[in-house]
Design goal:
alpha+beta, 5 domains, flat, 4-stranded antiparallel beta sheet, single chain
């Protein structure tokens, strides 16, 4: 099996896009080669990506694609042949256009069900790798997820090409041989650049299979993104463990640092302990965001005055100067953070409240000061509903957005809420109020922690309800994949809090509270029905993602439950009901009953047993009278599974009723009585979910 190596060496690629770019380059190349039948069975692709190169090694590549039998449809027989069986000009023109040279007698006739067609069957000769690779290379390079295209001139001074960054060298090796392809004005060779500082001459690659080893030993380049990442994680983790700490390593930061170095070397550095007086979130963010350092915390989760940096230089002094230089750089950054923190604490949060009038929230919804008043009103009512301290919820809502005016949050917007907590505690606010300021943004993303206290929950719900009610009220609903205000995330956050924190609050009550608070806004529209539908849609998505079928979710949501807390229990009940032997028949009967009721529109559910004239009616009514009180008790006690299982004995009398009884008889009284019976049965069966949605 012969391997193929393709490497495009460039100027520094954007680090945040490198991983996707390298994977897409290799995938596009492999996909094109496979579609042209150049890959043997068991062929494997290795992805390479470093700051200055995109590369792929593909094993099991054929020097020439195999000959391929093919069948080409030409024209209908009546169009292609004249009365004597000779080719018409239309057929000759078609064959010439397709490059087919053949005796008309060799053409096959095939009936396609409408007409008899002429087909040519032949053998398409295989293609040399150089041609197939050229096609694959063009596909690989020009279908990349490039964040921003750069236009640059070639050495001739006139030709302009476009790519993510200027390309310097192109390598294409089939085994040990160069494949003469071109890309971006470059002709393929075996030459590439090594490490920017540790090597000075171009590297002549000997073979495709030896690429990675040669790059490691001669070029001082570790071309594999995955292996560089693994080395960085291992070395930083072990380095932190050696000093009794644990490295703080966000996945995004690891990927970015991996994309910034071709030859990762880990060094340790430190900063003065006096900076530890600043909230550790500020220090960590400063180190991560500005310097790409890995901070270290001790066993108690407290920040240590040590950090690790990733260089790509093997320093002769063991990194002493590099560590000292980075210590000087981080000292200046941390000094800025300390200055912001000290200056911010000179003013209380309360003293900044009037300044919120100068911050526009939305041109149709007013200032942040106006928004705060609405959030306060909602928080007060929500606090009453969930049993939280009303005064503390209102106080937290009043202060929740004030840290947006501080220098620290101005520099690091990611710290909004976090700094509010620190400043609130410094000002003497209660712990619950301070914590609510931090937690009211939660959950910030899928899987994020929820607010931990009743006060925090009240403010978090109020904040999200104000956002949803306001933006829906001015017609700013999400459309398609566009959701600039993250309203889907806000809605899911509300639902998660109701369900996971077991808040026995109706979603309709929350929507009403939100709308009442928004009435003070000029030209606000009543969009409560649209917002409720939006919540229902989010519930549908949420539980489908949890593994429930579309039928199960639709059955529950068809009853429009207002207590979101009940939805999981209802879904479990529906799933348990569906396993019953009687489930399919009862679901089908329920659908039939629903259609009858919809068509006939009964005016009452009062049943007169004296009007029964068949045993089937009496049996069904008796079964219903027995089932109704039990179902009602189960429903009120939220025993939904028990309720639906208790419907199983209804199958026999329901089946018998539809076998023996005609509902729409001429006698108006009897007809109305039977419709009333079915209406009561329908209500009882659909208390938990609309069972007709389960019918097949």
């Amino acid at each position: 099996m012969t391997s193929l190596l393709v490497e495009l060496q460039t100027e520094e690629l954007p680090p945040k896009a490198l991983k996707k770019l390298s994977e897409a380059f290799a995938q596009n190349l492999t996909k094109s080669l496979a579609s042209q039948h150049f890959l043997e069975e068991g062929s494997q692709t290795t992805v390479y990506g470093s700051p200055r190169r995109l590369a792929a090694l593909v094993t099991g590549v054929l020097a020439k694609s195999p000959d391929e039998a093919f069948k080409q449809k030409l024209v209908p027989v009546k169009v292609g042949l004249d009365a004597d069986g000779n080719p018409t000009p239309a057929l000759e023109k078609k064959m010439k256009a397709l490059g087919i040279v053949a005796d008309v007698k060799s053409l096959k006739r095939v009936n396609d069900g409408k007409n008899e067609q002429l087909f040519y069957e032949g053998i398409r000769p295989g293609v040399e790798l150089v041609h197939g690779l050229q096609t694959a290379l063009d596909a690989a390079a020009f279908n990349l997820p490039i964040p921003k295209v750069m236009h640059y001139q070639l050495a001739d001074g006139t030709t302009t090409v476009s790519f993510v960054r200027p390309a310097k060298h192109l390598v294409a090796l089939y085994g040990e041989d160069v494949v003469p392809v071109t890309l971006l004005g470059l002709k393929a060779d075996r030459l590439t650049s090594g490490h920017r500082f540790h090597t000075h001459e171009l590297i002549s690659l000997r073979s495709a299979d030896g690429y990675e080893d040669q790059m490691m030993t001669e070029a001082k380049v570790m071309p594999s993104f995955a292996k560089r990442r693994e080395k960085i994680v291992h070395d930083v983790v072990e380095g932190a463990r050696a000093i009794g700490g644990e490295a703080i390593m966000p996945e995004d930061l690891i990927d970015e640092v991996t994309a910034l170095t071709e030859w990762p070397v880990i060094y340790q550095s430190s900063f003065e302990e006096e900076f530890l007086k600043v909230p550790q979130e500020c220090l960590i963010l400063t180190m991560q965001q500005n310097q790409k350092y890995f901070a270290v915390q001790d066993e108690q989760g407290r920040l240590m005055n040590r950090f690790f940096l990733v260089s790509q230089l093997e320093a002769k002094d063991g990194g002493v100067e590099i560590s000292a230089g980075n210590a000087r750089v981080v000292r200046a950054r941390l000094a800025d953070a300390k200055f912001f923190y000290d200056q911010d604490r000179l003013q209380t949060l309360e003293s900044r409240i009037p300044l919120l009038k100068n911050v526009v929230y939305h041109n149709k919804l007013g200032t942040q000061a106006e928004r705060v008043e609405r959030v306060k009103a909602i928080a007060a009512k929500v606090a009453d509903l969930i049993g939280a301290n009303r005064e503390e919820a209102v106080r937290a809502a009043q202060l929740a957005k004030v840290d947006l005016l501080t220098q620290m949050v101005g520099e690091f917007p990611e710290l909004q809420g976090i700094m509010g907590e620190y400043y609130a505690l410094h000002d003497g606010e209660s712990k619950d109020v301070a914590l609510a300021i931090r937690e009211h943004y939660q959950p910030r993303f899928a899987g994020d922690a929820l607010p931990s206290t009743p006060v925090s929950l009240a403010v978090a719900l109020a904040d999200k309800l104000e956002t949803l009610s306001g933006l829906f009220g001015i017609g700013q609903m999400p459309t398609g994949d566009k959701d600039p205000f993250a309203l889907r995330r806000h809605a899911l956050g509300v639902l998660r809090m109701l369900i996971e924190k077991r808040l026995n609050v109706a979603i309709t009550d929350l929507v009403d509270i939100g709308y009442e608070a928004m009435k003070s806004v000029a030209n606000i529209q009543d969009a409560r029905s649209e917002l409720l539908a939006f919540f229902e849609d989010r519930i549908r998505v949420m539980f489908k993602d949890k593994g429930y079928s579309a039928q199960e979710v639709d059955a529950v949501l068809a009853t429009h439950p207002t207590m979101v807390l009940d939805v999981p229990a209802r879904l479990e009940a529906v799933r348990a009901f569906a396993q019953l032997p009687e489930a399919e028949a009862l679901a089908a009967a329920n659908k039939r009953i629903g259609n009858i009721i919809k068509k006939s529109a009964p005016q009452t559910d009062v049943v007169d047993a004296a009007l029964f004239d068949s045993e089937a009616e009496k049996a069904l009514y008796a079964a219903l009278c027995e089932a109704e009180p039990r179902a009602k008790a189960d429903y009120e006690a939220c025993r939904y599974t028990e309720l639906l299982k208790s419907l199983a004995p209804m199958k026999a009398p329901v089946d018998r009723f539809f076998e023996d009884v005609m509902v729409n008889v001429e006698d108006a009284q009897v007809r109305a009585n039977r419709l009333a019976l079915l209406l009561r049965l329908h209500r009882t069966m659909n208390m938990v979910a609309e069972l007709s949605r389960l019918a097949k």
